[in-house]
């Protein structure tokens, strides 16, 4: 009877230790699961932050290209107006006087008289 009692006590101790081991393993698994859930939350936040930065970058690029287009358009208009102004000035200027050679030599464009031509 005593041996049976000791065997029963040992069996209860073993069952108790096995139950404690299983409970400890379960707690470890729960801790790991919580850790993974926290990591997943962190990854989700980082993914959202990256997506926001990506959208911001796209918006910045679009704004930059719009500014480039506006600048190019402004320069094209400015050049067009300068050409128009130059054309108007050319149309308003009287034509240059024709040089007449009645008894005198025509003046070159510099306004100085030409040197007499050497006769052979």
From TrEMBL:
One of its GO terms (molecular function) is histone binding. It comes from the Eukaryota. Keywords: Nucleus. InterPro entries: SMARCC_C. GO terms for biological process: positive regulation of DNA-templated transcription. This is SMARCC C-terminal domain-containing protein. Pfam families: SWIRM-assoc_1. Residues 4-75 form the SMARCC C-terminal domain. GO terms for cellular component: nBAF complex; npBAF complex; SWI/SNF complex. Residues 75-120 are annotated as: Disordered. Signal peptide: none annotated. Residues 79-92, 103-120 have a biased composition (Low complexity). The keyword Cytoplasm does not apply. It comes from Micrurus lemniscatus lemniscatus.
């Amino acid at each position: 009877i005593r041996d049976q009692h000791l065997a029963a006590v040992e069996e209860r101790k073993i069952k108790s230790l096995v139950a404690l081991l299983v409970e400890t393993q379960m707690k470890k698994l729960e801790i790991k699961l919580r850790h993974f859930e926290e990591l997943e939350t962190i990854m989700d936040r980082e993914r959202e932050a990256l997506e926001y930065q990506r959208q911001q970058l796209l918006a910045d690029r679009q704004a930059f290209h719009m500014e480039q287009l506006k600048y190019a358009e402004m320069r094209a208009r400015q050049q067009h107006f300068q050409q128009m102004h130059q054309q108007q000035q050319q149309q308003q200027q009287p034509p240059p006087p024709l040089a007449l050679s009645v008894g005198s030599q025509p003046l070159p464009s510099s306004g100085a008289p030409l040197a007499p031509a050497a006769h052979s």
